[in-house]
Amino acid sequence: MKLKTTDAYPSRIYSEPKLIERQDPVMYAKNEEQHILSQEELSFYERNGYLFFDSLFNEEEVRELSNESKRIWTLSGEENTPEVIREPGSNEVRSVFEIHRSNEVMKKLSENNQLLERVSLILGSQAYVHQSRINFKKGFTGKEFYWHSDFETWHVEDGMPRMRALSCSIALEDNYSFNGPLMVIPGSHRQFLSCVGEAPDDHYKSSLRKQEYGVPDQASLTRMVDEGGISAPTGKAGSVLFFDCNLMHGSNGNITPYSRNNVFIVYNSVHNKLQSPYSGKQPRPDYIAARS
Amino acid sequence: MKLKTTDAYPSRIYSEPKLIERQDPVMYAKNEEQHILSQEELSFYERNGYLFFDSLFNEEEVRELSNESKRIWTLSGEENTPEVIREPGSNEVRSVFEIHRSNEVMKKLSENNQLLERVSLILGSQAYVHQSRINFKKGFTGKEFYWHSDFETWHVEDGMPRMRALSCSIALEDNYSFNGPLMVIPGSHRQFLSCVGEAPDDHYKSSLRKQEYGVPDQASLTRMVDEGGISAPTGKAGSVLFFDCNLMHGSNGNITPYSRNNVFIVYNSVHNKLQSPYSGKQPRPDYIAARS
């Protein structure tokens, strides 16, 4: 056990789960200014930890993203690079990482002003891409993503010091309530759930397929849902969910014929750059958590 | 391959999936009479293959059912009888069969007039309980039920000759869109999907945990959903879904804390009693398909 004295959010070191009050602001935007987000939107995000926009991209932009993601899917099926993560128990592609570097269309997306203006407003600073990926949840066979706070992993395994990051999930197809949409627990971002169990070296090699450490316990999840409920915002292709790095989220599997593919882009404040991981272990590779 | 010449719905005998027109009525109710179901409800059922009622039972009845199901769950955990089916890959109870015989509360439920009057109206005859069970889909870990037509199995493995049966699914808790509710493909009951692959002897011992034969192919499912869409009726505890024996249905897994437990009671017309299975194999035991 290597506990930094400056660790604001210790996790995977106690024998019991613990809830720790968030020690960072959720919303860095100043109230008195005119913004791309309304006051209602800003306070909704602060209170609930997310914001959903049904059509931030037009049809043509969505078509380009969707076609490009299909191309990436096809190419990735044959590639054996570490950026390509496969489903547990099958060879099917589950995620492709670092697409904002390897792909021009996705690079352009990561620099899109519709995203960047909102992100830098919420984070109160310039931001950079901490991680990008496409998640492919295929029809019929798409597997669940169990509940987790991204920050817990980014903090412990990547050395992200504070909560000053957020994710954008961009839907590449129409999302329905029944094809395994992203579910969030509103308000859960205001507490940090310190999880039980120390992760082994190179945990990421298996955890991107199926998480086994840093997994929230059922009692804490139940309490969070009792307080905040569950929200599963669904909308058309091109809809975008912005959500706080510490918001508890997950998704069910998908036996419907409708695949559910999303681009995830994670932005981190330039004032929150990665340090050495709080686990004391080697940091995960750059394609999962940008250090350069 | 033992193909009866009188088999109206051959399945698991061809090398390709086949869609066969339904050769039986969906609705046996006479239009000119006054019924417990309205004309709109009757024609909705005929067209879509299901009917949903949000509150067929009052709070007290629901509480009694819910408490009794919890008692059955606890007792079943320790029992090693064939009526108790466990989750694939764990020892958790997934279903308990033949509850209308083993349990007084469930017996009373199976004889409830709110159910029986609707059932005998739709089937146009007296009906008897072909099968009963509780399905336990626990919070956090509840697994999916893949798409299937019940009739396909009941025909091939149990010898149910024609489509003149239906199921009642009674919700024991409030159902949400996100805790793995039953999904149906409206209109799919009007065609019989002849599935590929011959089931081995004693298939039911594994199929009740995870189906491997009589599984609809993805192309046919996609066509059905393209035509009819997907409906996932959700409502309060005590809500009831009536659905045709040949309606394609399934449900996703459930990572939410909300468990989703349902009582299933299957009624078959007294004019449609079981014969020897169309597979030519031994019939499944009486607790899965009543013969007596």
Automatic annotation (TrEMBL), chains A, B:
Enzyme Commission number, as recorded: 1.14.11.55
Domain of life: Bacteria
Gene3D superfamilies listed in its UniProt record: q2cbj1_9rhob like domain (2.60.120.620)
Molecular-function GO term, any one: oxidoreductase activity
Signal sequence, start to end: none
Family designation: Belongs to the PhyH family. EctD subfamily.
Name of the featured protein: Ectoine hydroxylase
Species for this entry: Paenibacillus agricola
Gene: thpD
